Amino acid sequence: xxxxTFDRAAASAAAGVLFGTLGTAGAVGAQSIDDYALTxxxxxxxGSVNVWFDDLPDGRLLVLNGNQVSVESAVGSGVFDxxxxxxxxxxxxxxxxxxxxxxxxxxxxxxxxxxxxxxxxTADPSxxxxxxxxxxxxxxxxxxxxxxxxxxxxxxxxxxxxxxTTDGTVTPLIVxxxxxxxxxxxxxxxxxxxxxxxxxxxGGSDTGSIKAFAASDIQSAITGGTTIDFEASGxxxxxxxxxxxxxxxxxxxxxxxGADFFGGxxxxxxxxxxxxxxxxxxxxxxxxxxxxxxxxxxxxxxxxPSPQDTIDAMEPPLxxxxxxxxxxxxxxxxxxEVQVFQVPEPGVAALLGGLGLLxxxxxxxxxxxxxxxxxxxxxxxxxxxYADAVVSYDPGLNAAPGFTDPATAxxxxxxxxxxxxxxxxxxxxxxxxxxxxxxxSIGESGQLTVSFDDxxxxxxxxxxxxxLLVFGNAFYTDADFPNGLAGxxxxxxxxxxxxADGVDFFEVTGLDADGAFPTLGYLDPTGAVTAxxxxxxxxxxxxxxxxxxxxxDPAGKTLAEILTGYxxxxxxxxxxxxxxxxxxxxxxxxxxxxxxxxTPEIDGFADVAAAASGVVGDYNDSGQVEQGDLDLVLQNWGxxxxxxxxxxxxxxxxxxxxxxxxxxxxVLQNWGGTGAPEMNGTVVPEPASLFVLITAAVGLDRxxx
Length: 705
What we know:
Number of strands: 41
Helix content: under 10%
Structural class: mainly beta
Shape: globular
Distance between the termini: 12 Å
Largest sheet: 5 strands, mixed
Strand content: 25-35%
């Protein structure tokens, strides 16, 4: 079954960058936040004031009691076995957090104002290292780097800094917070959420103000040292409690802890759960959509009653989401008991009633990838036809300044370049991608190496025998400007090499990485300009998994003739793996030799899809309309292919616009079809098949993130 993780394209509105609206789920079929049911309780080891816990990947809990570490004997048992003691870790006021790394091998613990954190092996707490860094709350960016919310040890400001646990490097990310630190979390796209834990700066943000900060801005802070000002940047999504214990569950709802004991807001006596649609709406429309606060309607804000209004303590309640069991754990200071709430199933009533109207929440989960030489977020937690991870990047000499973020080469190539600029618009063979967040530059003696989760195979069934596509920012000069008549090709070279194991690389001769065929984002590109100065891009996405016929020569042709010659393709330099004698590759490297005099730019890499079978509804091109096609429709319901691109694995009958009723009809009306005339467009599923469809929808409730 295809897995999909929700990606929110976040950017700082205050900095003038549009906040994207990818993947808004809508309300049809979604579960209400009122449906979270208290299913059980259990008791943590004695000493509840200093007890913190987090979930391991297998669903068991890791517990830190002072400096004593224990682990749950089995998932959901509530019984804990001692593992050992963390050495040189005994904070006077107890821990402030415990966070397990994504791979479950290590954990980081805060020290409540003592100026350091401890990082230890989850299987052997005695293997521990202390780092001088802020210590209020933390969230792992990947398996080696952890973002810390608190007083910055390098800038001496309250905010967020990034600790690299491999070498102790501390990088400031967010500064200028007008108050105390709060909780911190990431979503699957690497966007960071944090807030003001206690407002003590006149004119600044309120206690409980939670803001989202763009992954691109976070990456710029990491690689370029451009820190983010909390008060001047980001988009506020909620103003609740003291913005602590932040995180997302697998329905995309945000949980919040804390209490505004001295701020006068009255935010006492509950822990909060914010509806994901309210966050989506706020990010899509920061001006018109309201910030979720304690006065928001119950449909947007779930308030879990708590004893916080009856106790004299400033410690916020602890929320933990257990992804393996899809449960939310809630614990309050001075109480041993942990309450367990079952996250509800995604609603399927609309599917059963209307045979096709289903909206699914998208999950948020940080997905890291181990890289040789550098660590970069993977484009997605699930396999895709595009490059998934950056293995290494060396910008070399004379790389274009500001174009050195290798993560821009991951995922789908650019369909619309800098659309908010009057000079932007749909990518065409005359107008390539030129945004700093769209392409990466490779200077002389530099190189970029990426990897695919699923190997790219040498498949003779692929169109023209081409297996791999490399997208740069080459373009044709316009010999009849501005009408579009292809003159000479402007490309900047780049040597392509491929490898099966990441060790032995083989050069693909006769091809330039930044060369023909230039990228085409849409099959109906337009140069129209809106009243606001923004470019209109197009409505029919091209196919980035389909190569151009190598025999086609665009020189001297108009844009219309080039569109015909591309035949639905999105362009790209085509590589036949047979030319290097490899049956499959997982690694692609583009290098720029010393003395080349050019600096190639790279936009993306794609695994070519085999020619479509032609069966209506066979979206994954398996040769039959079946479960996989239904999964593609349901798991991508509402996805705007013009904005988010074609879903991974969707190889035939590419949708135009949103994935919706017509795509579902293609499956329902052709269920079991294999191409025979009587099986196309006329078959109504038998009762058994309908049961399969319903079961498939219900089965989506536990998709892995």
